[in-house]
Amino acid sequence: MKPATEPLTPLEQQVIEHKATEVPFTGKYVDLFAPGMYHCRRCGAALYRSQDKFDAHCGWPAFDAAIPGAVREIPDADGVRTESVCAACGAHLGHVFSGEGWTERNTRYCINSMSMVFVPQMDPRAEASPVEVAVLASGCFWGTEYWLSRLEGVLSTEVGYAGGWLRQPSYQEVKTGGTGHLECVRVVFDPAKVSYRQVLRQYFNTFDFEQADGQGPDIGPQYRSAIFYTDLEQKHQAEQVLDELREKGYRPVTQLRPLDVFYPEQQDCHRHYYDKTGDTPYCHLWREVL
Q1: Are residues 140 and 265 in the same domain?
Q2: Least CB-packed of 30, 76, 108, 215 within 10 Å?
Q3: pLDDT in tens, 160-175
Q4: What is the β-pairing status of strands 225-229 and 255-258?
Q5: Which of 90, 120, 150 is a domain's end point?
Q6: Whole-number Å distance between alpha carbons of 190 and 56
Q7: Which residues pair with 98 in a beta bridge?
Q8: Residue 92's closest CA among 201, 13, 156?
Q9: Could you give the residue numbers annotated as active site?
Q10: Do 3 and 36 touch, CB atoms closer than 8 A?
Q11: Is residue 90 part of a domain?
Q12: Residue 82 gets which letter from DSSP?
């Protein structure tokens, strides 16, 4: 099951990346109660199940539970509400409220339809297979994407930026090395076919994780390597893989950092670069170290 991965429309960008709110009663999922699963519009991660959806008469889709670990709750900029964001990519979803008494769970996730993609189930009793997301940096994102996209079980890859302070960075801005962002790749994969640890093994097999100042001839802070984990389980697995490398005598300098927001690169020329040109990466070479 592969959720939509098309580029966001300008209106979707306003909601998902700039935290705008849909006009009430206009979203396409407000009155939808068919069996299925709701995925993140930006990265495809599974967020909510239809059996947890209810009618709160508020004008937006309402759920009284999220898939465990799929949604993060952070204080809103207004200092009053609590924002709900995708744990995998940081996309703005809506807000969460408690103590209203709508259901026994006493929780209401008030979510924008534009932030989600609904995937229906043919059988209401069937459990949809959620996807997982990894965000990895290893120098020029052209080469990183080239190798990660070739791993069986990977559903989609997208180049972009993470780790910095500048919102909505452009390629030219990140290239200066002054934004704090690293070039990275968001990997959406099917955990039934490939594990997060296997994704990390492919990742470490494709670049020089002992180079601290960049990757190959690409020198600068934007080309450093990093694993951006989305939850504590990913962090734990990444730590174990790094320990494996150290036990083999390597000295990895790859950073391990929590993912805040992933900003996709908007220019199509950077997406699947080597597949378009027919070339192979100049600074990423596959060799088996794990």
Answers
A1: yes
A2: 76
A3: 999 999 877 999 999 9
A4: parallel
A5: 120
A6: 33
A7: 107
A8: 13
A9: 140
A10: no
A11: yes
A12: E
CATH classification at residue 68: 2.170.150.20
pLDDT value at residue 5? 59
CA angle 186, 189, 193 (to 5 degrees): 155
Q: Which tokens hold the place of 124?
A: 């209401």
Distance of alpha carbon 93 from alpha carbon 78, whole angstroms: 16
Beta strands in 76-115 (DSSP E): 82-86, 92-98, 107-111
d(CA 225, CA 74) in angstroms, rounded, equals: 27
Q: Are residues 48 and 172 in the same domain?
A: no
Nearest to 230 by CA among 268, 266, 267, 199: 199
DSSP 20-36: --PPTT-STTTT---SE
Give how many domains the chain has, as a whole number.
2
Task: For residue 197, count other CB atoms closer than 10 A to its CB.
Answer: 15
Residue 206 tokens, joined: 């494709």
* 146 and 113 co-located in one domain: no
CB 146 within 8 A of CB 281: yes
Instruction: Clarify whether residues 141 and 89 are in a common domain.
Output: no
Range of the domain at 222: 132-277
Q: Considering the domain boundaries, does residue 229 fall inside one?
A: yes
The token pair at 3 is 């959720």
pLDDT tens, residue by residue, 98-128: 999 999 999 999 999 999 999 887 644 335 4
